[in-house]
């Protein structure tokens, strides 16, 4: 099993196979030392607040084992940040920042101190830039090859996006539905292991098909968060719906699972507590769209996993849940759903407090049949028809309720 995994890694990424694992993370009384089994290309350190953590990205290394903590370090976790970078995360028992960080003269270890600071000092430091560290030139591995790299301006808040066009009947009293094609730009989303089809392309095709069907119905107005291949952070997506005062927000995705047998669609709504572990994992994965090269591009704090809901959001959430059930009912003739089709979890993209929002996982891109269905024009039309029928009934009910 171990050998099979190693071979697989080598086939996927020859550069990664050359990187040695992190040998040890030693927590001493005053110093912390990270030892490497091989030369590394460099390291960077940064802070994450609430819960307070210190993260170290080691370029040209593979993660080693997770370890228990000592003193101010509650635990040490390690993971693969990308093909050529290992990430070491120190969970802190109290706020502390990295000081005196340096590589050893032979490049084989990195040592630093933790300096306890106040919570506010920690938060200020967490907003600052990374600390970059390099081993001595003669003991430095070549930087790992990346298949693609992303340059993202950091530090400046992104200006508010120009709002997308509202399409459909020119009657402002008609309800407005915002369709959000998940992922885009440098974030491909899930990728089909069979055809290589990318989630971002499938979601865009689906969003367009849904838009066309909704406009043809003549009952609603429609806007797309993106009409081409571009990257938006999650806050920008629901921000568009809020700024347009949308009556409904539908985020379109296509799930992926290791088990290629997994198939079928599900509809997700927002909740602080996930309906099941799978839903929690999915939300964590979708929320990661905001994190590029370890930097959270979202509008808020670095921790997207905790979402506190306002009581005022309850009504919005009830409407969203009603629509989720309706969508499943109306689309079930044309689209295969999973047995527990309505689930909930803390999806950032569903967080608009005043726009009923759902996330429609239209199927599993990792499943051959689902991927073919979703990539086909006929399949896209079926998904669109289901959404259109549900939207029509939804607003007819809303209008009827208002008339009572
Ligand atoms: Zn997705």
List keywords for this structure.
single chain, 404 residues, alpha/beta, Immunoglobulin-like, Aminopeptidase, 2 domains, 6-stranded antiparallel β-sheet, 6-stranded mixed β-sheet, elongated, binds zinc ion
Compact summary:
The chain is of the alpha/beta class and 404 residues long.
Describe the structure in your own words.
The chain is α/β, with parallel strands linked by helices and 404 residues long. It has two domains: 13-136, Sandwich (Immunoglobulin-like); 176-403, Zn-dependent exopeptidases (Aminopeptidase, 3-Layer(aba) Sandwich). It is 29% helix and 29% strand. The protein has nine helices and 19 strands. The chain has a six-stranded antiparallel sheet with strand order 6-7-8-4-3-11. A six-stranded mixed sheet has the order 13-12-14-19-15-18, sandwiched between helices. The chain has a five-stranded mixed sheet with strand order 5-1-2-10-9. A hairpin with a 2-residue loop joins strand 7 (73-82) and strand 8 (85-92). Helix 4 (199-217) packs across helix 9 (377-403), helix 7 packs across helix 9 (377-403) and helix 8 packs across helix 9. The protein is elongated and about 75 Å long. The N and C termini lie far apart (65 Å). The structure holds zinc ion. Residues 182-183, 189, 199, 253, 286 line the site of zinc ion.
Give the class from helix and strand content and strand pairing. Answer: alpha/beta
Low-confidence stretches: 1-17, 146-157, 300-308
Query: In the residues, how many domains can be counted?
Result: 2
User: Percent helix among the residues?
Assistant: 25-40%
Basic shape: elongated
């Amino acid at each position: 099993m171990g050998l099979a995994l190693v071979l697989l890694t080598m086939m996927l990424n020859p550069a990664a196979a050359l990187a040695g694992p992190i040998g040890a993370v030693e927590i001493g009384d005053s110093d912390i030392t990270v030892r490497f089994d091989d030369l590394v290309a460099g390291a960077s350190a940064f802070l994450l607040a609430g819960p307070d953590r210190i993260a170290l990205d080691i370029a040209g290394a593979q993660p080693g084992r997770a370890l228990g903590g000592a003193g101010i370090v509650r635990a040490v976790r390690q993971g693969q940040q990308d093909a050529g970078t290992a990430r070491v995360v120190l969970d802190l028992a109290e706020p502390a920042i990295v000081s005196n960080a340096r590589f050893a003269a032979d490049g084989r270890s990195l040592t630093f101190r933790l300096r306890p600071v106040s919570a506010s000092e920690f938060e200020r430091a967490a907003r600052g830039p990374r600390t970059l560290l390099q081993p001595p030139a003669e003991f430095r591995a070549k930087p790992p090859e990346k298949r693609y790299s992303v340059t993202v301006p950091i530090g400046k808040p992104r200006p508010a996006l120009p709002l997308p066009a509202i399409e459909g009947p020119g009657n402002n009293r008609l309800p407005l539905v915002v369709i959000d094609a998940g992922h885009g730009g440098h974030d491909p989303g899930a990728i089909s292991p069979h055809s290589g089809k990318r989630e971002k392309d499938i979601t865009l095709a689906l969003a367009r098909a849904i838009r066309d069907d909704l406009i043809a119905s003549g009952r609603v107005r429609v806007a797309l968060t993106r009409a081409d291949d571009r990257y938006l952070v999650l806050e920008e997506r629901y921000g568009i719906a809020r700024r347009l005062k949308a009556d409904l927000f539908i985020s379109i995705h296509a799930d992926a699972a290791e088990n290629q047998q997994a198939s079928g669609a599900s509809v997700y709504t927002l909740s602080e507590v996930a309906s099941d572990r799978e839903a929690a994992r999915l939300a964590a994965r979708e929320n990661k769209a905001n994190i590029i090269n370890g930097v959270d591009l979202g509008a808020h704090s670095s921790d997207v996993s905790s979402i506190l809901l306002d009581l005022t959001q309850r009504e919005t959430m009830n409407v969203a849940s009603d629509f989720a059930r309706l969508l499943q009912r109306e689309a079930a003739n044309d689209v295969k759903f999973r047995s527990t089709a309505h689930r909930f979890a803390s999806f950032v993209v569903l967080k608009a407090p005043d726009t009923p929002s759902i996330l429609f996982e239209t199927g599993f891109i990792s499943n051959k049949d689902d991927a073919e269905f979703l990539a086909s024009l006929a399949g896209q039309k079926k998904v669109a028809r289901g959404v259109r029928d549900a939207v029509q009934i939804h607003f007819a009910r809303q209008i009827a309720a208002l008339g009572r």
